[in-house]
């Protein structure tokens, strides 16, 4: 049984939850236009040598062919380097992968099969005036406590590490997960994005986004009980980003 703790939920800090998940057209121009409203989830082919072992620079279609997609990443925006337009993505492999957990894909080539179909030729989509802000730094919260995480959420999502227990987390479908179902004693083995807090039937809950796709949980999301260090979410310091 978990100890009784002060309720951390504060209505005035409540975050809006996802209302719907929508798909964008299968062309890079549609993707580019949609980015002005926020990041997008794209499916790609994570080729072992070109993508999984990526360290720096950018990935081109010739290095990451159009095989069946097997991985999902978050598309943050577009940049231009040495005259070359590039997509800027965030991966879920952690900060030790790529450029602090991020990578660049060449635009206009359906690199790593991000469109799920071949495109022979595409116009240059880069528009300087529409460039999104890029990540300036990746920082860790100083304290391993839920109150610190709660306060930081007012400025945006936070990355947390958890123990993804097979029966309680990996096979999660609905409702909320408690520490009785997902221990806080095990070593963490997975990362998720903490979006905010909700309250259901008087119970304060964390609302998270996972990387398993929309068929998992509640359209790719889940709820964890607050105040219990559920799934060991406090075992490692939480991470957040600042932008340029």
UniProtKB/TrEMBL annotation:
Domain Peptidase C1A papain C-terminal: 44-242
InterPro entries: Papain-like_cys_pep_sf, Peptidase_C1A, Peptidase_C1A_C
Any one Gene Ontology BP term: proteolysis
Single GO MF descriptor: cysteine-type peptidase activity
One Pfam assignment: Peptidase_C1
Entry-linked Gene3D superfamilies: Cysteine proteinases (3.90.70.10)
Family affiliation: Belongs to the peptidase C1 family.
Name the record gives this protein: CSON002907 protein
């Amino acid at each position: 049984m978990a100890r009784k703790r002060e309720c951390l939920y504060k209505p005035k800090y409540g975050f809006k939850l996802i209302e719907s998940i929508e798909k964008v057209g299968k062309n890079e121009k549609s993707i580019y236009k949609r980015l002005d409203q926020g990041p997008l989830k794209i499916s790609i082919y994570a080729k072992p040598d070109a993508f999984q072992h990526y360290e720096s620079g950018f990935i081109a279609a010739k290095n990451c062919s159009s095989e069946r997609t097997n991985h999902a990443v978050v598309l943050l925006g577009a940049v231009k380097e040495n005259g070359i337009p590039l997509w800027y993505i965030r991966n879920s492999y952690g900060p030790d992968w790529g450029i602090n957990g991020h990578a660049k894909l060449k635009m206009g080539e359906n690199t790593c099969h991000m469109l799920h179909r071949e495109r022979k030729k595409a116009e240059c989509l880069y528009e300087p005036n529409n460039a999104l802000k890029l990540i300036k730094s990746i920082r860790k919260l100083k304290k391993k406590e839920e109150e610190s995480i709660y306060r930081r959420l007012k400025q945006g999502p936070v990355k947390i590490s958890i123990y993804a227990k097979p029966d309680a987390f990996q096979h999660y479908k609905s409702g909320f997960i408690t520490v009785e179902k997902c221990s806080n004693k095990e070593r963490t083995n997975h990362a998720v994005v903490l979006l905010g807090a909700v309250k259901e039937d008087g119970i304060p809950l964390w609302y998270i986004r996972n990387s398993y796709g929309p068929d998992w949980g509640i359209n790719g999301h889940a709820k964890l009980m607050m105040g219990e260090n559920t799934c060991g979410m406090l075992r490692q310091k939480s991470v957040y980003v600042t932008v340029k």
